[in-house]
Structure formats: structure tokens, C-alpha cells
């Protein structure tokens, strides 16, 4: 069966690389289609929903180069990266044309601005063909993060279980069942597609070691899903569920002095950090509401009012 997305198509046993236009715009998404020699599932992989989460983007680029039609039983669609203009502008977290966060606008809107149209294109051209969706993220340029994975919680019980089973093969310590609805993978979940969002790497840095760990995770998932043959590479960790995540925002703008690092275990009442003015006067101090694990925290010295500062969860 032909694999077709926008103006690109790959016949059985073929690999096609090129660009998919976002509706009536000049924005072109770099895409690789790999149509296996044997029939099987169709899997969607995206990197760069967030523009400067580089390890996920480079992982998508390398997977697109490495995987050949004879390697897979089924079909693979890879976007590398999805938010191309944000990536090229080096503007973290947003699509620069309209300054919207792409992972907050799903399912998108064909009458909307560019971000809405990218989301709409991902849904109508890619997700509707997918049996499973892997979205690769990380901490943004301004975030320090420990690796973890989200799996959809807003889907059919079967899709949630399949997403959780795939998340379980990832080499990280933590996983989180997501109840969100407006992210790319959340919307796929709402449509009954098992979907996960992986978090690895941060602070605008990428290196081959992190990309190799990321690729190992994706290859293990592709083997787990039956798209690739072979045995899974051994992992150091098996993720455990964290629940009741707190996404703590700052009540005030100012200079941010964290007391914790990503991956730290904290006790209830422990200081997470404080915001001070330019004269070192404390403006706000933040404490842990429960014993938990820090998943990520802002690493820039400046924080906006209502800007995220710490995300943590508990067992
Ligand atoms: Zn992200």
C-alpha cells in the first residue's frame, strides 16, 4: 500500500525524503517516509514540536537517515523537525510567526495562524494514518531536565495500556500518565491512537551520547511494537509512575535562584528556590508540597511572572 503525505509518497519497499507544505503557507516540514517491504503498523515520529529541544530533533534526523525499508515491517513517517521556522530562528518553545506554543493548540485550525495550521496538518495528514505516535521532546533552552516519558491517559483503555507498555521499555527512571488534551500526542490519544511524549536532554545542548540514548529508546520501542525485528538493547532503568505532578509557576517576575536540580528527591516543606529583585531582596520563596522527584526546573537567571519554575511529581 502506498504511503502518502501531502505531495510525498513512498511505494512498498521505498523510502522518500522531502518537504510537506503546511496548507496554503510557505512553511515546509522536512519529512521522511519509509514504506517497509512487508505490511505492518504505521508509526509516526516527530521531533521539534518545540524548536530548541535538540536531542529529539537530531534523533529524528538520524533515524530518518538510518532506517531503510528492508529494516521494517510496516510504515514510518518522521518529521524532523515539525516546527522548522522556530528551529531556524532559534526561538525556544514557540512558532515565531505567531508566537504560539505548538503543543498547546491541537487539533489546530485550518482558519487559524501558522501554528494552528501546522497542528491541523499534523492531525489530518499524519496522525490520521498512524497506529502509534512517538513525540520526542526534552527540556527547552531555559530548562534543566531529567529524562522521563509521558503516555496518554485520555484515550481508550486499550490505547492507554499500549502507550504505557511502550513507555515501559524506555531507559529512564520515571513515567507519567498525562490527562492533557491540547498537545500533539494528547490529541492523537483522544482519537484512540496510543501515543507517548519522551523527554531527554535540555538547556539547548545536544551531544551524540544523548542522541544515542534517545535512538536506543526509539529502536527498542519499534522492536516492542513489531515494526523492527531483533532483540531490544538492555536498559539501565525501568520507569516507575509519578503522579499528581505540580507545574509550579512564579507569582512574580525576577531573578530565579533554584535550590534543587532536575532528578533530585525532595522532602515535603523543602525549599525549591526563591525569586529576588535586582538588589537581592527576596520576592517569593517556594517549598515542596510533598515528598517528590524534580523532573525539570527553569535554569535561566530570569523568570517571568506566571512563568514555570519547577515541575515535580510523587510516587
Ligand atoms: Zn517540549
From TrEMBL:
Pfam families per record: AstE_AspA_cat
SUPFAM superfamilies: Zn-dependent exopeptidases (SSF53187)
Top-rank taxon: Bacteria
Entry keywords, A to Z: Hydrolase, Metal-binding, Zinc
Cofactor(s), by name: Zn(2+)
One term of GO molecular function: metal ion binding
InterPro entries assigned: AstE_AspA_cat, N-alpha-Ac-DABA-like, N-alpha-Ac-DABA_deacetylase
Signal recorded as keyword: no
Ranges for domain Succinylglutamate desuccinylase/Aspartoacylase catalytic: 40-224
Protein name (database record): Succinylglutamate desuccinylase/aspartoacylase
Amino acid at each position: 500500500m502506498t504511503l502518502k503525505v501531502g505531495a510525498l509518497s513512498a511505494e512498498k519497499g521505498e523510502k522518500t525524503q522531502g518537504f510537506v507544505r503546511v496548507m496554503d503557507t510557505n512553511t515546509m516540514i522536512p519529512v521522511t517516509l519509509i514504506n517497509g517491504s512487508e505490511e505492518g503498523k504505521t508509526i509516526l515520529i516527530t521531533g521539534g514540536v518545540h524548536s530548541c529541544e535538540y536531542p529529539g530533533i537530531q534523533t529524528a534526523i538520524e533515524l530518518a537517515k538510518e532506517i531503510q525499508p528492508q529494516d521494517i515491517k510496516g510504515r514510518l513517517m518522521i518529521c524532523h523537525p515539525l516546527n522548522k521556522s522556530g528551529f531556524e530562528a532559534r526561538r525556544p518553545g514557540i512558532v515565531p510567526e505567531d508566537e504560539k506554543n505548538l503543543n498547546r493548540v491541537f487539533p489546530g485550525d485550518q482558519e487559524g495562524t501558522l501554528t494552528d495550521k501546522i497542528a491541523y496538518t499534523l492531525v489530518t495528514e499524519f496522525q490520521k494514518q498512524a497506529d502509534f505516535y512517538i513525540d520526542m521532546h526534552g527540556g527547552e533552552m531555559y530548562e534543566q531536565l531529567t529524562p522521563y516519558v509521558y503516555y496518554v491517559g485520555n484515550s481508550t483503555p486499550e490505547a492507554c495500556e499500549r502507550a504505557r507498555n511502550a513507555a515501559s521499555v524506555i531507559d529512564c527512571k520515571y513515567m507519567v500518565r498525562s490527562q492533557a488534551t491540547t498537545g500533539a500526542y494528547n490529541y492523537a490519544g483522544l482519537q484512540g491512537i496510543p501515543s507517548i511524549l519522551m523527554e531527554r536532554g535540555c538547556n539547548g545542548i545536544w551531544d551524540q551520547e544523548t542522541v544515542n540514548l534517545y535512538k536506543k529508546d526509539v529502536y527498542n520501542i519499534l522492536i516492542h511494537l513489531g515494526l523492527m525485528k531483533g532483540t531490544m538493547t538492555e536498559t539501565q532503568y525501568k520507569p516507575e509512575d509519578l503522579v499528581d505532578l505540580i507545574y509550579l509557576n512564579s507569582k512574580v517576575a525576577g531573578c530565579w535562584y533554584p535550590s534543587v536540580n532536575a532528578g533530585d528527591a525532595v522532602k515535603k516543606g523543602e525549599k525549591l528556590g526563591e525569586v529576588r529583585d535586582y538588589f537581592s531582596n527576596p520576592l517569593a520563596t517556594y517549598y515542596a508540597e510533598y515528598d517528590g522527584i524534580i523532573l525539570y526546573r527553569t535554569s535561566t537567571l530570569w523568570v517571568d511572572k506566571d512563568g514555570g519554575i519547577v515541575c515535580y511529581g510523587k510516587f
